[in-house]
Write a structure and sequence with these properties.
Order of helices and strands of chain A: EEHEEEEHEHEEHEEHEH
CATH superfamily of the largest domain in chain A: SPOUT methyltransferase, trefoil knot domain
Number of helices of chain A: 6
Distance between the termini of chain A: 31 Å
Number of domains of chain A: 2
CATH architecture of the largest domain in chain A: 3-Layer(aba) Sandwich
Shape of chain A: elongated
Structural class of chain A: alpha/beta
Number of strands of chain A: 12
Oligomer: homodimer
Helix content of chain A: 25-40%
Chain lengths: ~230, ~230
């Protein structure tokens, strides 16, 4: 079943148009034609069954049918991460979306090599990953900015678990309340980064285990653990 | 620090030659010359400090110096996984290696699309991932074969946790004793696969949580949880 994220409101009988990328995927890659079934979600109105109504000049117009699944609350898990090389950054956004992360905060740290991030590109990756998972929302992806700005904007009541390697800190254990994970860059945090983290009362330094993991792997592992601890 | 896996025995003062790939990486990509430091491991003799002794015609000969870290036992965690598309299979091998998996068993299931796997390629990925993590071993990667053969060869005293989605099964919880994880193909297990699994007393059906994950993500998440539960 093909699932598409749309921005339009969803209600029985309404018509919505797929984006150019989605239309290409539907009609070009997947060879779907008029009448083919599609599922739609917009992050607000639940998941709807629909079907392709028309495909004028490579576009795809979809008729909304019936509600398949009502909107439900997201996992309340955030991820702040140092921008990595392009492939690794893409993987973090894709996997974090699959794992249900509701907010992604890319940040620049002392040892971040990248100077900028293509936010539209990251958002497109988040939308595709949401379409291919079963979530009913897309993640909220912030404009990348310095770590210090991210920490200044972080809600103080939300614990931020910072994954550290080779540090004598506690292993991540079950948590309660709103939480987020912070993953540093390949080269680790610098002294100024660590001082900034120390100054934040919501920051908790934790270990993800005895192994040294690449940054993108640490993001997936840390999110998996935070979610598993929230299952209870 | 550059770490290289070699097959030769390691002892103070001995000379070892890097493979062609490693020599290219050392001298071509990383621009290291004679005298540069390198770390070596072979899965048996621990980790050794060494330095480049000579680079005749693009080769790299390394003098073994002193023992930096004695050999230690591996994590005793195995992964059996349905062969996926190439990129996804590569990611599974790379991330499982980083996470310390000691044995990788690629298998063909009813809904596996691939008919064969390049074992040399997978082993090369495992070696590179081991070099870039801090493990002192490389994973043992088996020749791919049918799921049924894998189950027949699986040691009966080793529990095999099979990750299932949309199934009314127990969530993965802490385990003791030797264990492995089995991840199915993108399309899920077929009826014959499930019947074969049912016939094995060492198989435990488990859920990795409420989310639908891609196969390669499920592998990483399942391994992360099995390892975390083994920290205690």
């Amino acid at each position: 079943m093909i699932r598409l994220y749309v921005e339009a409101d969803l209600a029985a009988g309404s018509l919505v148009e797929a984006t150019e990328r989605q239309a290409h995927y539907l009609t070009g890659v997947m060879r779907r034609g008029i009448g083919s079934s599609v599922q739609l979600f917009n992050g607000r109105d639940g998941e709807w069954d629909g079907h392709i109504a028309s495909t004028p000049r490579g576009r795809a117009i979809i008729t909304v049918g019936t509600l398949a699944r009502p909107q439900s609350a997201d996992a309340d898990l955030w991820l702040m991460f140092a921008v990595l090389k392009r492939d690794a950054t893409d993987l973090v956004v894709q996997k974090a979306t699959e794992l249900g992360v509701s907010a992604l905060w890319p940040v620049f740290t002392e040892r971040t090599n990248a100077a900028r991030v293509n936010l539209d590109r990251l958002r497109a990756i988040g939308i595709e990953a949401a379409e291919q998972s079963e979530r009913l929302t897309i993640p909220d992806i912030r404009q990348a900015g310095p770590l210090n700005d991210g920490l200044a904007d972080w809600p103080v009541e939300r614990q931020l678990f910072v994954a550290l390697e080779r540090a004598n800190v506690q292993t991540l254990t079950p948590v309660s309340g709103p939480a987020g994970l912070l993953i540093g860059p390949e080269g680790g945090f610098g002294q100024h980064d660590l001082a900034a983290l120390d100054a934040c009362r919501f920051v908790r330094r934790v270990s993800l285990g005895p192994r040294v993991l690449r940054a993108e792997t640490a993001a997936i592992v840390g999110l998996a653990l935070l979610q598993a601890y929230g299952w209870s």
